[in-house]
Amino acid sequence: MSQDKLLIGALEIANLPELGISDLKIRVDTGAQTSSLHVDNIRTVKKNGKPWVKFDIHPNLYNVDEVIRTEAKLKDVRWIKSSNGSRQQRYVIETLFQIGQREWPIQITLTDRSDMTYLMLFGREGMGSHVLVDPSQTFICGENN
């Protein structure tokens, strides 16, 4: 069964193609239940009568002028306990996640991670049965997918 799983390291490069994001450095965290993405200017809108969220992403930590404005269907609103123990309500979206030559849909909470080194945290729910993690390695899937 493990031969079907993708081996990934503690840091990887991933794509979120439905959001227009590619070559995003992510931190793989088996201690985190949910995946989270740093976004700015979150706002809810109605699209065909359904709730959606619009938000901005700065995909390059070193160039804050680069902005991707995107939107996604709102999947849920959840209370999340962060690593520092505080609880906050977050919007949850579901989007396609690509790493290496694999892709699958994952749920991601949208939050302010501006004080963190990596814009995305890849948690256990997103990993599912798709990956095995070697925490001693980084960028196993390559710098560019």
UniProtKB/TrEMBL annotation:
Residues 8-141 form the Retropepsin-like aspartic endopeptidase domain. It holds the Pfam family Zn_protease. This is Transglutaminase. It comes from Catenovulum agarivorans DS-2. The lineage of its organism: Bacteria, Pseudomonadati, Pseudomonadota, Gammaproteobacteria, Alteromonadales.
